[in-house]
Specification:
D-Maltodextrin-Binding Protein, domain 2, alpha/beta, five-stranded mixed sheet
Length: 328
């Protein structure tokens, strides 16, 4: 049974009622007993966005496997920082988890003072869903192909700013700007919805977002995906070229939605949480829905995901420096 409340999205599972009353301290939790009570999953973005879509796809299936109640708790704000802080300060017992975006490895270079340490205070568990970011053009502004945009922006860059919605799209956009050599300026929006409205109205020519955010407008023809940031074309969108194919190499970046625990989560718990995710991602229904979102399932081991986090911290640090971004 599921229910939606102001506080969060509660996912129940058969047999959860009795187990939810148990109380265990981190020192006595054993991986094979988890979960013995309600699990809280923090989504540090508002309902309806990409992170929320992924959470509501995966978490109910985890609740079924765990036979336990799981709460999806939306705590949006500051590009995921406010919700992430909740998890950073939570006990390392596996009962408070985080679904976060690639902004996790970007925020240290855009925010002057974080209320946590990006590596020490979190345990990477696994990637849930990964996919491209896309440069979206406004047909009303005449931007229905990458060729047209690049030619116009090179001829008169002041007339062709690009939109971003949070720190992930901003940094990918900065990387695109550097690699393309364009002297275009960024217009930052507080969310994807207002940027999509501006694009649809022709008030801004292009913007970066995820394919799942713009899929319906792309198919309706009101907006147009110009290129994607993956090394290969997406199976769900074979007609959309990659950045490299469009003449802008070096923007091969996949954005991810991933599962984290608090820092110090026991390795056995992290591994079992990852194993449960892998089982969910293997379900045909889930695989089909992820494919429809022009994305790919994750399932990397905690160790592999931790290595990726370290790698991306280096990449985004270098990008921020090259772009002249000063943390605010």
């Amino acid at each position: 049974m599921t229910g939606l409340s102001r506080r969060g999205f509660v996912v129940g599972a058969a047999g959860a009622t009795g187990a939810a009353g148990l109380s265990m301290t981190p020192s006595v939790v054993r991986a094979q007993e988890y979960p013995a009570k309600q699990v809280r999953v923090i989504v540090p973005y508002p309902a309806g966005g990409g992170t929320d879509i992924v959470a509501r796809l995966i978490v109910p299936k985890l609740a079924e496997r765990w036979k336990q109640t799981v709460i999806i708790d939306n705590k949006g704000g500051a590009s995921g920082i406010l919700g992430s802080e909740i998890v950073a300060r939570a006990p390392a017992d596996g009962y408070t988890l985080l679904i976060m975006t690639s902004a996790h490895t970007i925020n240290p270079f855009t925010t002057k003072t974080l209320p946590y340490d990006t590596e020490r205070d979190f345990t990477p568990i696994t990637i849930l869903v990964a996919g491209a970011l896309t440069l979206v053009g406004s047909p009303k502004a005449g931007m229905d192909s990458m060729e047209k945009f690049l030619a116009a922006a090179r001829a008169d860059p002041a007339k062709f700013p690009w939109g971003s919605t949070e720190n992930t799209t901003r940094m990918v956009g900065e990387l695109f700007r550097i690699r393309s050599g364009l002297k275009i300026e960024n217009v930052a929006y507080k969310g994807a919805a207002p940027m999509m409205q501006e694009l649809a109205g022709g008030h801004i020519p292009v913007g970066f977002t995820s394919p799942l955010t713009v899929m319906s407008q792309h198919r309706a023809g009101t907006l147009r995906m110009l290129a994607v940031s993956t090394p290969k074309r997406l199976a769900a969108l074979p007609e959309i070229p990659t950045m490299a194919e469009s003449g802008v190499p070096g923007v091969e970046i996949e954005a991810w939605f991933s599962l984290f625990g608090p820092g110090g989560l026991p390795p056995a718990l992290a591994q079992r949480r990852r194993d449960a995710v892998v089982a969910v991602l293997a379900e045909p229904e889930i695989k089909a829905k992820i494919a429809e979102l022009a994305s790919a399932p994750g399932g990397e081991s905690p160790e592999a995901f931790a290595a990726l986090v370290k790698k991306e911290l280096v990449i985004w640090g270098e990008t921020a420096k090259a772009a002249g971004i000063v943390p605010e």
